[in-house]
Every structure is written in structure tokens, then in C-alpha cells.
Design goal:
With 273 residues, the protein is α/β, with parallel strands linked by helices. It has 10 helices and 7 strands.
């Protein structure tokens, strides 16, 4: 782990100590304040129990799940470090280390939390995401959020999730669909590195409804408004395995760098004439 990232792990309590932010124990979130218009989120890789919190039951909740996305928390930290190394600046990042069976931050509060003990963890995650998105829009004008997940299907496939393009609406409106699935898009670059993307970048089929984008990309992408676009990447087991994590992190960082050079601002908005 890089020194800069470690420092942000340690200061979670001070970041959350403001009157408008919930307080949670150290080690339950990794957060990183960024210097780029890029945000990385990983909500489902955590393995730590929330103290004094019962497991969620999910009664009456559609698509209820408690299984964690193995290794996506550690992978996300590698992605943050790889982007910093590639682009010589830090992206924003938030990674959950608490287990999904206690709080699911990729659901609405009503669906993701069933205990008062879990609520501060949920709120802390979203407070940082909201703050990061606002900072990117204010400082850069537009940006990209990548939400990392894992699936139990084909081990080498990456399913994209954008609510069938709705969470990247601003990007497509501004630059056309090529910015979403073309050669210099994140998805296009991952395909060029040999990864299997579903739906294929050249296909017109709809996204797999099981992996088509959850609460985070729908809330913080450009589906309703705003200029931060969001892509959920559902990674097969082999892609996110410990054996391949360094390679994937490097490849994703390279893909993000190509995308950023083509479609994101090179300077902060207030620095531009």
C-alpha cells in the first residue's frame, strides 16, 4: 500500500468527525481525497463485522444479497495506486471494509440498512461519495466514477453496468457513443487489453439486468443530472483474483488514462481561461 493511501486510511475518524458526517471506527473505510476528476468506489468487498449489528434479513427487498465480492476491496486499493502511478496524481476513492450482510451501500438507505448500528457506516460511505462528486464537478466541470464489483458467472468476463447507458448520459451527449464504447473509452481500452466485455462494445444488446448498474452509479452518475458519468464494472473471479489483481489494476489504470486524455479536462475549471 502506498504511503499516501495509508494516511487516508488512518484519518477516516477525523474526516467523519464533522458535524454533518457520521463517526465510524478506523479501518472500516478507506477514503482518498483526489487530485483528478476520477472516483473509484468498491462497496462490497469488506469482511469486517459491524459491532453490535445484526445481519440483514432482507424481508420484502427485491434483489436482496449479502454475499461479498471477494477481493474487490484490496483490488480497489491497487487500482487507486495504479492510477496515481500512471497519471502522477491521486484519484478520489472510497472502499468499504465492513461486510455487506450488515450494510449494503449499493442500495437505498431503506433497502441497505436494517439496524441503527449500521446506519453511520452507510452514511459515511455516501457522504464521501457525495463530497467527491461535488468536488469533481466544481473543480473540473466533469468526471468519471468507476464502481467495482464481482460476479460469480463466467470467470473472465467483465459485465458493464450503466442502466443501459443512462448513467453515462452526459458523456454520450457531449462526445457521442464512441466515448462510452469506442477505441479510447475505458471499455474499449479494456477490450484492447484482452478482457471480455459484456455486452460487447460493438453489440447493440441491452446490459444483463443482474449486472446493469446499481444504486451507486444511478445516484452519482449522470442519469438524472450532473456531469460525472458512472460505470459499474462487474468482474469475473479470475479477473479480480489475487493472482491477477496487479495486472488488472495496471490495465484499468492505463485504460482510465487513455480515456481521461481524450474526454476529461486536463486542468481544473477555475484554471482554464
Amino acid at each position: 500500500m502506498s504511503r499516501s493511501l495509508l494516511l487516508f486510511v488512518l484519518v477516516v475518524p477525523s474526516l467523519a468527525a464533522d458535524d454533518d458526517k457520521p463517526m465510524i471506527p478506523a479501518g472500516m473505510l478507506t477514503v482518498q481525497k483526489g487530485e483528478l476528476p476520477i472516483i473509484v468506489s468498491a462497496p462490497h468487498g469488506g469482511r469486517k463485522p459491524i459491532p453490535n449489528c445484526p445481519e440483514r434479513k432482507g424481508k420484502g427487498i427485491p434483489k436482496f444479497a449479502t454475499v461479498n465480492d471477494t477481493n474487490t476491496d484490496e483490488l480497489a486499493k491497487k487500482v487507486l495506486a495504479a492510477i496515481e502511478k500512471k497519471m502522477h496524481a491521486k484519484p478520489y476513492g472510497v472502499v468499504a471494509h465492513f461486510e455487506r450482510k450488515y450494510a449494503d451501500v449499493n442500495r437505498s438507505l431503506a433497502d441497505g440498512v436494517e439496524s441503527d448500528a449500521a446506519k453511520p457506516y452507510y452514511e459515511a460511505y455516501h457522504a464521501f461519495l457525495k463530497e467527491s462528486r461535488a468536488a469533481v464537478q466544481k473543480d473540473w466541470g466533469r468526471g468519471l466514477l468507476i464502481d467495482l464489483h464481482g460476479h460469480g458467472g463466467d470467470a473472465v468476463t467483465i459485465f458493464r453496468g450503466t442502466n443501459d447507458g443512462k448513467t453515462v448520459q452526459h458523456l454520450v451527449d457531449r462526445f457521442g457513443k464512441t466515448a462510452f464504447t469506442g477505441e479510447k473509452s475505458v471499455l474499449g481500452q479494456l477490450a484492447a487489453h484482452g478482457y471480455t466485455i459484456s455486452p460487447a462494445n460493438t453489440a447493440r444488446e441491452r446490459e444483463n439486468p443482474a449486472f446493469g448498474g446499481g444504486y451507486i452509479v444511478a445516484t452519482y452518475g449522470s442519469k438524472a443530472d450532473g456531469s460525472v458519468d458512472a460505470i459499474q464494472l462487474e468482474l469475473g473471479a479470475r479477473v479480480r483474483s489475487r493472482a491477477n489483481a496487479d495486472t488488472f489494476a495496471t490495465d484499468l489504470a492505463a485504460a482510465v488514462a487513455v480515456f481521461a486524455a481524450e474526454y476529461l479536462p486536463a486542468k481544473k475549471a477555475q484554471s482554464e481561461p
